[in-house]
Amino acid sequence: MAAAMVAWRLVGRLVGRAVGPGGAFACPLTRLAFPAGQRRRMSGASPVLVELDERAGVAVVRLQQPPVNGLSLALLTELCLALQKLEDRRACRGLVLTSAIPGIFSAGLDITEMFGRSEERLGEFWRAVQQLWILLYGSRLVTVAAVNGSSPAGGCLMALSCDYRIMADNPKYQIGLNETRLGIVAPFWFKDALLNTVGHRAAERSLQLGLLYSPQEAFKIGLVDELVPEEKIQARAAEVMAQWLAIPDHARQLSKSALRKQTLDHLLMHREADIQDFVRFISRDAIQKSLQKYMEMLKQKKAYQVVSIGRILWNPRVRIMIRVLVRS
Amino acid sequence: MAAAMVAWRLVGRLVGRAVGPGGAFACPLTRLAFPAGQRRRMSGASPVLVELDERAGVAVVRLQQPPVNGLSLALLTELCLALQKLEDRRACRGLVLTSAIPGIFSAGLDITEMFGRSEERLGEFWRAVQQLWILLYGSRLVTVAAVNGSSPAGGCLMALSCDYRIMADNPKYQIGLNETRLGIVAPFWFKDALLNTVGHRAAERSLQLGLLYSPQEAFKIGLVDELVPEEKIQARAAEVMAQWLAIPDHARQLSKSALRKQTLDHLLMHREADIQDFVRFISRDAIQKSLQKYMEMLKQKKAYQVVSIGRILWNPRVRIMIRVLVRS
Amino acid sequence: MAAAMVAWRLVGRLVGRAVGPGGAFACPLTRLAFPAGQRRRMSGASPVLVELDERAGVAVVRLQQPPVNGLSLALLTELCLALQKLEDRRACRGLVLTSAIPGIFSAGLDITEMFGRSEERLGEFWRAVQQLWILLYGSRLVTVAAVNGSSPAGGCLMALSCDYRIMADNPKYQIGLNETRLGIVAPFWFKDALLNTVGHRAAERSLQLGLLYSPQEAFKIGLVDELVPEEKIQARAAEVMAQWLAIPDHARQLSKSALRKQTLDHLLMHREADIQDFVRFISRDAIQKSLQKYMEMLKQKKAYQVVSIGRILWNPRVRIMIRVLVRS
């Protein structure tokens, strides 16, 4: 038990150091500040809305980056900063992660962050993606994802990193790690998070085919824990949170660490290599050319201005074009 | 195949050495002796009743330590001794583990063993808990748990360590590793045994929340293999045992080892460190103070004289008090 | 991503070297040659029928080794050669593995290959069994098993090694790793392939009991992915293949490698030791005597001329005799 506890602290320290203002990943300390009062909106124009109910010890974090909560470096930085602040805030014991944009939880990584960027910038972007996962997957807080819209790729990863997933039972929504369909590959820690949730066989099929699941299908394979009518999702998240907060924090955190530490350590110990792998892969001429053509296509056809990978799949015409591009 | 076989023998030797009279964990060789005849009760006042049917090659081991089969050092020692004897007995090929106390399989570790004890005694206690798991989880015998009552914490661990779990379908009964609710944490090998049974996701949720499942829920997640009406559980255990004994022992044992050896080795290779972790954790002032208050409360309120951790949960008033104590 | 890609190539190279004509495992380069035209049967008297539809990029591989597609060294060699050729053929993107013999997919390893053979020959046989699994489990192709008959032991392994398993919904058919019932043990890589498909608990029970499942049972535990009426199995396999081929090959292959590489590496890194283990185990006097008696029995009772292990179970009389032999 002591060993597990020490390990947990170690992760905490690593995470803390990585995002601290003097560390390798410096978050701009702007716009977000927790007010003394309760239940006040903590940011205005920010893409990350944080409401902390100090009495309950619960923060609700809402993503609001139109059009599809694409994970740009700016959004990632804001989100990591907000999560780290909640992590450090003693009064906070749990967080609900959800979207302020109707119909979309998050469309995943912002594709514009991957095209025509310097290696340094690409590395910074990838480090921020890693950081988001490390913070969420290893959080000391109870984390509940209220998936109130579609959630492909990186959006699905965020949900997978929480302790509990509630999804709106709307058959139009989809969730899954669909990277493969776009000709790219989910990194090993995306895969590990999926595998720990749905098991080896479902993960194998899911990743090879880049499957996007309806809420009913996602529930069936265990990708989400519960389905609720869309209008009740926030209330249900609060109920679930109350159940989880009835458990003593320290013991719950140690149990969480016992089950997640190995998976977290895998990335923590290979973080730089993982960044280099990403930068090398995404900088390849073939990949950049595909991205360029895709970006140009987006500019020409304003109707398809979707800045995030996952969205591509939802329009058959774009999907076909992408497939051709990726193959060429 | 040969490699697997050697490994199995190695485990056998390690186990044998550890419990042998000259080893680190000396069982008092008293009270239990196998008579030559068949189907005779093998012990009288002992908390461990063993009946060996030599013709069938099957032993039934019944726990009878009132009020709730709490795993005290005395009971653990008797049980390990009985299991080791059956392990060494050529005529014995299978064992059914069950309870002689109505409504309770086992309430798990005896909390009085953890309060106000010397470090030496705490270490001895924990070594006995380890030994029970090593013997059961790595047994060469077919092991069937006939879970005829509630089975929290260490009681659940015993069931998890068998090859097959049959539970009485009585909605009043509960089973699960609920340590987290009491502010303590299931050791890594409890976690591994659960994970190997219900998978990563169910284990994560189960351990973080310290869930106790009804028989129906336990069956649904695979924590038990089969539900039967309470009055038929022993007959059904005998039927299942006959099916398992139809398989050649040697091949079955090698297959079992192939799937359990890695998990067993994890503890066997870190056994002393695990004991030290336990002793250090349980000796902490905060933990001892909580235990003291709880013990005093038990003395004052005779109605709550339940000596074992798991039982606490079954009385809402006690649960609330404990939670307060743990937090203070 | 780059790391995963390199790893994949490494496996490819290892596999390639192992089966190349100058390598340790030399396939006789006979009988099989791909014609230039499409949809022509690629071999005549061969036990391995290969039809490659170059336009679709899909090969159908049919086993036709009467009476039960027992995996003899000859069949293994032909099959490995065919698989390697398809692997190397750029026009081929997927393969359907099925049987040309009604009612039987494959009865698994040919028992006559294990009796009265020199150590060299036994080693050659086992290397071919390994090679088949390495090729199938690590194939760059989409692999769909159309299980159109019973599939015990090594037959089940072949199905487990594919990406997707469709089984004819005929209650007379059975599938499973039933080695334990015959007194032998599934090698660790059989176990790993099963574990990756049905999870730890189902694998433990399945292997300890040597369970053979009906199609419905196999579907329930996830051992097969889909059941179809027998007459529709080939059409359904083609449909499924088309779905899988809609995914970009490169990304699909990297995702497959990410989930299978560790399991493959386990054998690749212990291949020689695994061969030695097999040869030592099967050469033991007790095992050879059992095999001898069984072979003699087969000769005397022509009615039981089943050359492959799995088949034994389907006749109660033979099963009983075998059990006696194994025990003696």
TrEMBL record, chains A, B, C:
<dbReference type="InterPro" id="IPR018376">
    <property type="entry name" value="Enoyl-CoA_hyd/isom_CS"/>
</dbReference>
<keyword id="KW-0007">Acetylation</keyword>
<keyword id="KW-0496">Mitochondrion</keyword>
<dbReference type="GO" id="GO:0005759">
    <property type="term" value="C:mitochondrial matrix"/>
</dbReference>
<keyword id="KW-0443">Lipid metabolism</keyword>
<keyword id="KW-0276">Fatty acid metabolism</keyword>
<comment type="subunit">
    <text>Homotrimer.</text>
</comment>
<keyword id="KW-0809">Transit peptide</keyword>
<dbReference type="Pfam" id="PF00378">
    <property type="entry name" value="ECH_1"/>
</dbReference>
<dbReference type="GO" id="GO:0004165">
    <property type="term" value="F:delta(3)-delta(2)-enoyl-CoA isomerase activity"/>
</dbReference>
<keyword id="KW-0413">Isomerase</keyword>
<dbReference type="InterPro" id="IPR029045">
    <property type="entry name" value="ClpP/crotonase-like_dom_sf"/>
</dbReference>
<protein>
    <recommendedName>
        <fullName>Enoyl-CoA delta isomerase 1, mitochondrial</fullName>
        <ecNumber>5.3.3.8</ecNumber>
    </recommendedName>
</protein>
<comment type="pathway">
    <text>Lipid metabolism; fatty acid beta-oxidation.</text>
</comment>
<comment type="similarity">
    <text>Belongs to the enoyl-CoA hydratase/isomerase family.</text>
</comment>
<dbReference type="InterPro" id="IPR001753">
    <property type="entry name" value="Enoyl-CoA_hydra/iso"/>
</dbReference>
<dbReference type="GO" id="GO:0006635">
    <property type="term" value="P:fatty acid beta-oxidation"/>
</dbReference>
<comment type="function">
    <text>Key enzyme of fatty acid beta-oxidation. Able to isomerize both 3-cis (3Z) and 3-trans (3E) double bonds into the 2-trans (2E) form in a range of enoyl-CoA species, with a preference for (3Z)-enoyl-CoAs over (3E)-enoyl-CoAs. The catalytic efficiency of this enzyme is not affected by the fatty acyl chain length.</text>
</comment>
